Amino acid sequence: MITHVPANYYVNTGQLFLKKIFLLVLFFQLFVLNGFGQQCVIFTTNPSFESPTVIGNVNYRCDNSGLTNTTADVCACNDAFGVPGWITTATDHAIEMWKGAATDAVALTSTVGGPAEFTAADGAQFVELNACQASGVYQDFDTPNPTVFIVRFSHRGRGGSSNNGFDVCKVSAGPASGTLTGIITATDNRAAWGTYTTTYTVPFGQIKTRFLFGAITSASNDNGIGNFLDNIQFTANNSINGSGLVALSCTLDQAMVTAGGVSGSWSQDPGNPSVTTINLTPSDPNNTTIISGFALTGTYKYTWTTPYCSTQLTVTVANLSPVTPTISSNSPVCAGNSLTLSASTIPGVTYHWIGPSGFSSTLQNPVVSASANVNMSGSYTLTVLSPAGCQSSPATVTVLVTPSTITIASASSTINGGSSLTLVIGVPCSLTGGQTITLTPSGNAVSGTNYSGLPSQVFIPQGSSSVSFTINGLNNNVINGVNTLLIQASATNYVSGNATVTIVDITGNNPSNTIINIGTGTISESLSKTLVVGLTGTVKTYGPLTVTIVSDKIFPRNYTANDGRGA
C-alpha cells in the first residue's frame, strides 16, 4: 500500500486496450515455453509482473479471479482479470503493482521507501504483498503426474524500524483445495533484493497444485506496507539433463541421455539427416535413453516432452562408420587340415580379427592354422577401423574343426606264413598338406621271425586321404604256430587308429597231416638196412626239420630229412 502518493504516482485505469494487451500476453505465455537453464519453465504466467503496464509509479489492479472492487478508497479496482496469472488472498482482490526506478535510492533501511526508490529484480515491474491488506498472491498449476518443482523468486523489504528493518515472506505449497505447507521463508531489508530457490515434490493424486507467497511481518508495522516480490519462476525437473548437446565421432556411436519427468516421450525432427532408433528404458526414474542408428553425418534434433513442458536435444555426428564386412571360412574342416578366414574388401580400413584360443590377426584373409585342431572351433569376429577411428559393427562366423580318427583297413585280419597282406591307412578328409603317420607295432609277433615289411612311418600326400603298405607273413615251422601283430597309427592332431593282424603257419600245418613215419625192416648183424623217415600227406617243410630218433641198443640217432623233399 502507498500512503501520501502524489497524483502523478497513482493511476487506476480499466481501459479496454490495456485489457486486450493483457490477454495477448497471457495467450503468449500459456503456449510458449522458455528455458531456465536446462529445465522447463512450466507455464509460469506473468513471472515478473510485467502485465499490466503500470501507469505512473504505482497501480492497484484487480487480480486474475475475475472479481472487482469498486470501493471509493485507493485500493479500488474494476479491471477484472487485471493481473494475468495471479490471485490475491486479499478480500478486496487488489494487487499493488510498482514500476521499478532507474536506480536504487540510498537510504537507511529503517526508513520506509517510496516510489522511484527501488529498482525491479527482473524486468521493469514488481508487486508489494502488503497492499491495502497484509496478503499473499498465488498461482495454481495442473499437476496430472507427480513431479518436482523448483521455485525461484526474489524478495525485498521496504524498510522500517521494527524487526531490525526486515520484512518476512513465506512460500507455501500444496493442493489447491486443501491445506498448504510452508516450504521456505524469505527475510530481507530494503537494501537489496534477495533471491531464493527451493523445491517442492508434487505427490501422486494431487492434480492441481498451489504456490502461495504470503506476507508474514513488515518492518513498517503497517499491514499495508512491505514485502516486495518479483522474478518468480516455477520450473520442474522434466527436462533433459546436461547441456542438451551431444557430439558423436562416428555414425555407429550411440547417444545416451537422461531426463526428468514422468510419462515423457521422445520425438525426432523430420528434418534430421536420417531416421534413428530411440530406446527409452521402461520404468526408469532417470528416463535413460539410447539413441542409435545414425546413417549419415550431420546434426540431429530431438524433443523430450512431458505433461508439463518440452526441451530439446541436439546430437552432431562427425564421421561415417565403415560398413559391416562380409566374412566366411573354409569350415567345416578336419583336424590336421588348414583353417582359413576371409573378408570382403573395404578400402582404407584396418582389419581386426579375434577368435578362440587367443587368436587375433590384422590380415584381411588370415590362415588360422595350417594344421587345425578341435580347440580352434568356435566364433571368429571381425571389425574394421576407418582412418578417422570409426569402428564397424562386428561380423561373426562360426567355425567347426572336426576330430580326425586314423583308420587301418585290410581285406583280411589273418595272414599265413609265406603270404602277404596289404593294409590301408586313411584319414576322413583329403589333406590340404601332407601328413606323416607313425606306425607302432606290439604283440607277440616278432619282426623278421613272424613278419616283415612293416614301416615305421607312412606319408599321406597333399590332396589324398590314404596310403597303403604291405606286410609279409613268415612260417617258423611251428605246429599250429599263431602270432599276433598289433599296429597303432598315430599323428599330431589325430585320434590314433589300431589294427590287429594274426599270423599263422601255412595252411595244412596241423596234427592230422604232420605225422612222421619211419620205414620198417629186418637186418642181420653183418648186413645193412635203409629206413625212410617222412611226413605224411603233402606237407613240405620251410627250412630244415630235425627229427630225433629214440632207439635201444646202438641204433644211430639224429637222422636229418633233407630240405624240400619231404623225406
Characteristics of this structure?
5 domains, 8-stranded antiparallel β-sheet, 39% strand, Jelly Rolls, disordered N terminus, 1 helix, mainly beta, 567 residues, Immunoglobulin-like, disordered C terminus, 5-stranded antiparallel β-sheet
Structural features, described:
- The chain is mainly beta and 567 residues long.
- The chain has five domains: 7-236, Jelly Rolls; 245-319, Immunoglobulins (Immunoglobulin-like, Sandwich), CATH 2.60.40.10; 327-402, Sandwich (Immunoglobulin-like); 407-504, Immunoglobulins (Immunoglobulin-like); 514-567, no CATH class.
- The protein is 3% helix and 39% strand.
- It is built from one helix and 42 strands.
- The strands form eleven sheets. Strands 1, 2, 3, 5, 6, 8, 11 and 13 form an eight-stranded antiparallel sheet that branches. Strands 4-7-12-9-10 form a five-stranded antiparallel sheet, with no helix packed on it. Strands 31-38-37-33-35 form a five-stranded mixed sheet, with no helix packed on it.
- Residues 1-37, 508-513 and 559-567 have low confidence and may be disordered.
